[in-house]
Amino acid sequence: MGVLTTSRHEYWATISGSSLQDILQQEETVRQWGVTAVEFRADLIPPPIYSDLLARRAWSGPTFVAHFGVGVEAKIAHDAIVRAIDADVFGGICHSRCELAMEIRHACLDAGKQFAAAYHSQEPMTCAEALREFEQQEVFQPLFRKIAVRAHRFEDALAIVEATHEAAISGGSPVIGAVFGPHRWARVVLPHAGSSVSFILAHQVANEVGKDDEQLQVIEVNALQSIRGLFPPHSGELEQWREPTHPTRMVAA
Hints:
- There is one protein chain.
- It is globular and about 40 Å long.
- An eight-stranded parallel sheet has the order 7-6-5-4-3-2-1-8.
- It has eight helices and eight strands; from the N terminus they run βαβαβαβαβαβαβαβα.
- It has a single domain, classed as Aldolase class I (TIM Barrel, Alpha-Beta Barrel), CATH 3.20.20.70.
């Protein structure tokens, strides 16, 4: 869709919190650092605070809203993302296993917004399982395909690195690989395996149910980049963004 580049690595920021003040402070921090886009996790923000956030309608850069509800929360995810469309966000991100993912996709594209259906889990995946997930996400013709899972063992993290690399060189939508937990080395390796985006936090926050997600923070990225060749430099070029366009063909559900 002409939004993510294939020649450089990008940093996006994930923001969640229990107060509007904290959320806005996080946004200011990561915007000043130069992230390409911000993703607000609607499923990790109390509904009244989420409403106040959308009421601002004054984003200082590319902004996405994500909600990973499935099952009984699928309708909540749908409504949260559709509400954000009217708040002039760039797009919506839902769980790839969300029962209403195709409806959310249609709502985003009909409004001229971007869409992605990322897979998050607190359980690991094998390389073969991850490759199948990347293939399934491609059906949505998404902005990107993403897998983020918990790695309990070295082999768990390596499976995501290998799957991300294979999917990246096979073509299609840009791919993103990430792991939760103590195997943080994979977060440094994945950009070199073809992962197009690293998601970072303004500071450590209680995020997924795992509590110990060990996600990269803004203060850590500069240190990583200072070691030559260890971590790709961020693009820092918001002008690379273009207005989202409708795909030329629709994919049947």
